[in-house]
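Worked problem 6 (solution included).
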Amino acid sequence: MFQPRPMTHLLIAASKEQMASVVTELYRHQIFHITDFVDQGKEGYEGVKIGVPFENAGELSNNLLKIRSIESVFQTAPSTQSTVQMRPAETIRAAIDSELPKIEEEVSSLTVKRSNAETRIRECEQRINELKPFALVPLELDLYRGYGSLTVFAGYIEHDLDISVPHEKTYVAGKDGNFIVVFAESKNAADIERQLADAGFQSVSLPVESGTVQAAVEKYTVELGKETQIREDCTAKIVELKAKYADLLAACDEVLSCDVERAEAPLRFATTDEAFVIDGWIPADTVDKITAALNQATGERVYVTVDPSDYEATAVPVEYNNPSFAKPAELFMDLYSRPKYKELDPTIILAIMFPLLFGFIVGDLGYGLLYLALALVLRKTLLKMGETGYKAFIIILGAAISTSVFGLLYSEFFGMSLPWHSIIFSRHLPIGAGMEHAMPQVIELLIVSALLGVIYISVGRFFGMINHYRMDHPGSHRTKAVLAQLGWNFILWGILVLILSVADLNEYCQFPFALPTFVAYPTIAGIIGAILIVVGCVFVAIENPLDLMEIPTNTLSHMLSFCRLAAVGLSSVAIAMVVNFMAVDLFISPAMANLDVVGVLLIIVGVIILILGHALNVALGILGGALHPIRLHYVEFFTKFYQGGGIIYKPFGLKRKFSEE
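Solution. The predicted structure is:
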C-alpha cells in the first residue's frame, strides 16, 4: 500500500535472428521497462554498440509523419477521439496503403489552395490599407511616379510645416493621422527630407497602381471577396474530410505509432555483430510469465536471467501500487515527484485526506451541489483526455461529495442555516436577520486544525525514520538521521505536553468528548515535557547542531500552519453570509415590502449581487479548498520524509484504444 510495485531487473539475450520475435512478444505484453544502452565506446564494452532500426522503420516513420500532418490540418488527434470503433490492426494497415495516398493528395491540394488564398487575402488587405490615405489627395495614382527630375514624398506627419525650398504640397488632417504629399526637385530632396524628419515624418510606400484610388481599392476589394470565398470553400471541404476520415486517421496513427516504436526499439539495445542484449525492469510477479512467453516465441532460443545485484533506488523504475480508490491522487503525486523505489509512497494518505480537508474548508451543501454539477458537466471533456482526465474527474467528484457531506454536518446551504443545528461545529457568524445570536466555534475549529498538524508532522517524522533506515547505507550516518527524526517528534510532543500541563483546553471549547489535559499533574507533566524536549534536542544535535535553530519553523510554525484550514473555511462562510445580507436584507426584503418599479429594480440588483457574490465564493472555494490542502501536504508533510525523484515506469508498448492485433 505504501510501497511501489516490486520490480525485478531482467536481462534478455539472443541472436539477432530472434530480435523481431523478442520485440514483438515484449510489445504484446506491455510490462517490460527498457533501460536504454548508453555505454557504447566505454571501456569494457569494446565491440558492443547501439542497435539499428528494422528495415521498415523509415517507411513507417514517413507514413506516421504524413498522418500527423493531416491530423494537424484537421485539428484533431487520437487523444480527442473517444468514439472510434476497434478494428483489426491488419485492416488498418491495408487502409494505410490504399487510403492514405488519396487522403494526403486531397488534403494537400486543399491546404495549398487555402494557403495561397490566405496569402493573397493578406496582400489585398495590405494594399487597401496602403491606398486609403491617398484617397484624401486629389491626384490619380499614375502621377506619383515616373519623374526624372522630381522626387515625391508621402506619409504621416505630426503637424503641418512650412518647407523652405520650392515645392508642391498637399496636407490633410485626419483622426487616424495627418497625411502629407510633397513634390519637389530632386536637387532639394535631401533638404526636404531633413525638414520632414524634424516634424516626425513617417513615409509610406508610393502606389504602383494606375487610375483613381477608388478604382484601385474596388479592384482589390473584389479580389479580396473572391479569395475569401475560396478560403471558406477549402475550409468547408477540409471539415467534410475531417468528418469522413478523422476516426480512420486516429486508428492509423495508433497502429503506426506502435509499428514505429517496435521498428526503432533496437536503438535502445546493446548489440554485437551476432547478438543483442536487452536490459530492463519488470514487475516481480510477471517474471515467469514473460520468460515462458519469450521461450515460446523464439523456440527457446533466448536467454532470460534475473540480475540479483542490489541496485540503487534511483535506478529502479517506479510503478504505483495503490488500491483503485487512491489512483486519482497519483495525479497530485506526479505533479510533485514520483517516489523513489525504496521510499514510502504517501499517495493513499493524500487520496483520503485531500477530499476530507477540501470539505472541511468549504463545507457547504449548496456549493457542494454546484461542484457536483460542474464535475458532471466537465465529465465528457475530461474523459476525452484519457487517464489523466479520468483522475481529475474523480478528484472533483470526491471534493464535491465531501463538501456536500460537511455542509450537512455544518448545517450550511449557500451561507444560510439548514433546518437543523450543526452536527459537528457551528461556523455561522452573527450576520443578517435571524443570525444575531449565532456564535461560530472558532476555538474548536482551530484546535482540530492544530491537532491535525500534530498528527501530520508526527506521521511525517515517523515515515522519515523508515525512509532513512531503508534508503541510507548502514552506518553512523543512518543512525543519526533516524534519531534526528525521532528527536523532532520528541520536541513536538514535549511542547504539546507542556502546553497541556498548564492549560485545560476543555475550559475554552465544547467538544462531545473531553480533551486530554495534565493540569492535575503539572509538575510530573512539566518534567516529562522538558525531558522530551531535551532528549529531542540532543537527538537532533547529534546529526547537525545547526538544525536546532529551525525548531520554531520545523515544529511550531508547521503545526500552526494547519490552522489555515479553519481560517479559510470561516472566511468562506463570512463571504457567503455577507453576500446574503447585502442581497436579501438590503435589497430584496425591503423591496418586497413595497413592490413597485423601484422595488423591482432593487430585487434585480439584489439577485445580481446574490449570483455574482456566490459565484465568486464558489471560485474562491475551489482555489482555497484545493490549494491549501495540497500545500499542507507538499510543504508541511512531505518535507519531513519525502524526497521523490523516482523514475517513472514506462513499459514497452502502447495502450491501444482503436486497434487490436
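Discussion: Residues 324-443+563-640 form one domain.
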